[in-house]
Automatic annotation (TrEMBL):
<dbReference type="Pfam" id="PF02469">
    <property type="entry name" value="Fasciclin"/>
</dbReference>
<dbReference type="InterPro" id="IPR000782">
    <property type="entry name" value="FAS1_domain"/>
</dbReference>
<dbReference type="InterPro" id="IPR036378">
    <property type="entry name" value="FAS1_dom_sf"/>
</dbReference>
<protein>
    <submittedName>
        <fullName>Fasciclin domain-containing protein</fullName>
    </submittedName>
</protein>
<feature type="domain" description="FAS1">
    <location>
        <begin position="68"/>
        <end position="200"/>
    </location>
</feature>
<keyword id="KW-0732">Signal</keyword>
<feature type="compositionally biased region" description="Low complexity">
    <location>
        <begin position="25"/>
        <end position="48"/>
    </location>
</feature>
<dbReference type="InterPro" id="IPR050904">
    <property type="entry name" value="Adhesion/Biosynth-related"/>
</dbReference>
<feature type="region of interest" description="Disordered">
    <location>
        <begin position="25"/>
        <end position="50"/>
    </location>
</feature>
<feature type="signal peptide">
    <location>
        <begin position="1"/>
        <end position="27"/>
    </location>
</feature>
Length: 204
């Protein structure tokens, strides 16, 4: 009987050892799961950070204008600048305004174009008016990247076509040849855009 009892005892000890080993494996699995969860959390934070950085821009015409896109690409996304984009395409200035620049663009809204005398926009978009359209559009472009903080009252800006624009500061807002800057400092990869409420017309 004593011998049987001893054998049984060994069996119980073996079962206990297996149980302890099993518990150790469970603990290891738990630690691994915890580490995986930690990694997932860190990756989640990184993704959130990237999303935040990507959205670091200015909302114009229902779309986010971001610094990683060029001036034309940002403008195309704006529902308020479809007329301006059509004009830029008609004047074959897309490649120019997608170039390295940098440029400062005073971008009239659709409402600004609609405020022109009836037939003006349609007339400018005709192939035979390309030179005139180009002159109007380049009157809105200044070399360099000028932010609102760089504009001073009475300042004269020289456009890429050599024309002059006058800056007026009034009630905390900048005006360019009488057109009010409604949204300032829309930064793109190749310059800065300021949304204005009037079309700037050079002397023809």
């Amino acid at each position: 009987m004593k011998k049987v009892f001893t054998t049984a005892s060994f069996a119980l000890l073996a079962v206990a050892a297996l149980s302890l080993s099993s518990c150790g494996d469970t603990a290891t699995t738990t630690e691994t799961t915890t580490d995986t969860a930690t990694t997932t959390t860190v990756e989640g934070d990184t993704t959130a950070m990237d999303a935040s950085t990507a959205s670091n821009g200015v909302m114009v015409g229902g779309a986010m204008m971001t610094p990683d896109k060029d001036i034309v690409t940002n403008a195309i996304a704006s529902a308020d600048h479809t007329t301006l984009v059509a004009a830029v395409k008609a004047a074959d200035l897309v490649a120019t305004l997608q170039g390295p620049g940098p440029f400062t663009v005073f971008a009239p809204t659709n409402a600004a174009f609609n405020a022109l005398p009836a037939g003006t926009v349609d007339g400018l978009l005709k192939p035979e008016s390309k030179d005139k359209l180009t002159k109007v559009l380049t009157f809105h472009v200044v070399p360099g990247a000028l932010k609102a903080a760089d504009l001073t009252d009475g300042q004269e800006l020289t456009t890429v076509a050599g024309e002059k624009l006058k800056v007026t500061l009034k009630d905390g807002k900048a005006m360019i040849n009488g057109a009010t800057v409604e949204i300032a400092d829309v930064v793109s990869s190749n310059g800065v855009t300021h949304v204005v409420n009037q079309v700037l017309l050079p002397k023809m």
